[in-house]
Amino acid sequence: MALICNVVQNVAQTEGPEGHSSNGDWGEVYRRNERFIESGSAYFSQAFAEALGLVSDLELHNRERAQLRLASISALLGHSVEQYSTSLDIDDRSGLAEHHEATLHRLGLDLRGTEQALTDGRHSGYIVADDHLIRRLALLFHEQGYRALMDAYLEKVISIQSLIRPGELTETVSDWQGLTWQLTSAFTDAMMFGQCIAVMNAVAYR
Known about the structure:
The protein is globular. It is built from seven helices and no strands. The chain has one domain (25-204). The two termini are 15 Å apart. The longest helix is centred in the N-terminal third of the chain and has 35 residues, at 25-59. By secondary structure, the chain is mostly helical.
């Protein structure tokens, strides 16, 4: 199961597109969609690890390796975006996002329930989220739905990739240091946002 933005498929009593149980139609859609979520999460995590490795490269003054690592980060993020986008395409074609959103609502994730689920996740040490982030996520889900959460997460991933512009880097230490700080900060922000979505899904099915 993906640790970032996972969609848990333990919905044995919900109905599928034609009134069938989720062990039929919806179960298969969940499984197919989850494979792309997992792949997107894996590529994202590998890119994040490379960004942390970039810190090591700069500390050791290995600029050549840092250049290669930047290319690796960009490629990994490209694969991540592709996998997440495919997942969203499945959502659109199958109606899974609406179905999943309705399921979460039935399980108690209204505005207050979402805030409580995220607060419980914070207390358990699953996420590092202040009250403002928790409220923002809960409001986004309440007002615009589950798809809006996933779109916002994907936009964060895409924005990280846009930071990488090798041709604009100079040889100055400050340029490389600044880019590294931007990358690690953006990765941390995106990962925590995605992890909050995962906690919403996981807590709902406890």
